[in-house]
Design goal:
single chain, alpha/beta, FAD/NAD(P)-binding domain, Enolase-like, domain 1, five-stranded parallel β-sheet, 10 helices, 26 strands, globular
């Protein structure tokens, strides 16, 4: 049986290795990671790990004994080239790994801030455990904290900092926070939530530059506003790591392009997780998603194919974010929706937003309504329709999903 080499030891890479063994794959499985230590969870980095509520020993996806028991080889190294003809992966230190099948689970990297002063000491990103450790050390003596970017990561960090008794100013260039991911009702709810906890949100103004000699001291906005800052956390999105695939001649378009079985344009190479652009049956087009669900389900789909039980990928996307006492859960993808119906009361902190494209339900955003989220997932996964007119004041999503 041929060797499966997996590039990337994040959630997707770990999961495909584990799933191959779960399905009885008898060949060699090699997991290549460019971070020290064993594979770990990323979602807690901006939340429980940052506040100290979760110890680093609990970040690991599995203990080292798991990899020994399941004969999964962990290789530390940075992949720099693929020889498709000879089926070899080249590492930066000159080592080469021969593969029968290569899996690209290379993930993403933080988008860099391109303004004067972006390289000053104290300007930090949050992507890896090492990033989180650097930020934790800074927070012990931090006074003025600015977050650039009002997406999930930026707001989760701001919430964690507030729990530690710190005050944060969040700068978002768009007209509302989390604009790419949620409806205006949810954006407004979370902005108000942050402000109630002492954080400040500045919207609609770009960052012009950062001030300081060696260490950052302030953030200047395009309207001339100057915000004092001893620590600046940048969360302005991510870029998929596609260079390895592109240099090998694989199709790339906002991610490594794959089919419904996670196969690239080379049948001996697959791509999964945050770096993969796949055809979604829920949107009718190729999408690239950044979520644990997507990484795990991609990996399981690929492991099934490599062990002889191929099925096309059809999983429903879902996402979550935890900030203060508000748990946001999203089922489906709301891109292109043109009508939103709210059920529940945002003022009471528990509600759901039903997002429609025409007469078709495409996503449900739930805040502190876990049963709604679970019912929405069942409904959307089954492809059942729901019209805006159905969502009246007495509408019960759980009953509707059960009846469907």
């Amino acid at each position: 049986m041929s060797t499966v080499v997996i590039v990337g030891a994040g959630q997707a890479g770990y999961q495909v290795a584990a799933s191959l063994r779960d399905k009885g794959y008898p060949g060699r499985v090699v997991l290549v990671g460019n971070e020290p230590g064993i594979p770990y969870q990323r979602p807690p980095l901006s939340k429980a790990y940052l506040t100290g509520a979760l110890a680093d020993t609990r970040l690991a996806l599995r203990p080292m004994t798991f990899y020994a028991k399941h004969d999964i080889e962990l290789v530390a190294g940075h992949a720099v080239g693929i020889d498709r003809e000879c089926h070899r992966l080249r590492l930066a230190d000159g080592r080469e790994l021969e593969y029968g099948h290569l899996v690209l689970a290379t993930g993403t990297r933080n988008r860099e801030l391109s303004v004067p002063g972006a390289q000053l000491d104290g300007v930090l990103g949050l992507r890896t455990k090492a990033d989180a450790d650097r930020i934790r050390r800074r927070l012990g003596t931090a006074r003025d904290i600015v977050v650039i970017g009002g997406g999930f990561i930026g707001l989760e960090f701001a919430a964690s900092a507030a729990k530690l008794g710190l005050t944060v100013t969040v700068v978002e260039v768009a007209d509302r926070v989390m604009r790419r991911a949620v409806s205006p009702v949810v954006s407004q709810h979370y902005e108000a939530l942050h402000e109630r906890h002492g954080n400040r949100v500045v919207r609609g103004v770009p960052v012009a530059g950062l001030h300081g000699t060696q260490h950052v001291t302030a953030v200047e906005l395009a309207d001339g506003t100057v915000l004092l800052a001893g620590v600046v956390v940048v969360g302005i999105g991510v870029v998929p790591n596609t260079e390895l695939a592109a240099e090998a001649g694989l199709a790339v378009d906002n991610g490594v392009v794959v089919d419904t079985h996670m196969s690239t344009s080379d049948p001996d190479i697959s791509a999964i997780g945050d770096c993969a652009a796949y055809p979604s049956r829920h949107t009718g087009r190729h999408v690239r998603l950044e979520s644990v669900q997507n990484a795990v389900d991609h990996a399981r789909c690929l492991a099934a194919r490599l062990t002889g039980t191929a099925e096309p990928y059809t999983s429903l996307p879902w996402f979550w974010s935890e900030q203060f006492d508000a748990r946001l859960q999203i089922a489906g993808i709301s891109d292109g929706y043109d009508n939103a119906v709210v059920r529940g009361d945002p003022a009471e902190g528990a509600f759901s937003v039903f997002c429609f494209r025409g007469e078709r339900l495409v996503a449900v955003e739930s805040v502190n309504r876990v049963p709604d989220h679970m019912a929405a997932r069942r409904l959307l996964e089954a492809g059942r329709s729901l019209r805006p007119a159905d969502v009246v004041d007495s509408f019960d999503l759980r009953s509707y999903a059960a009846a469907s």
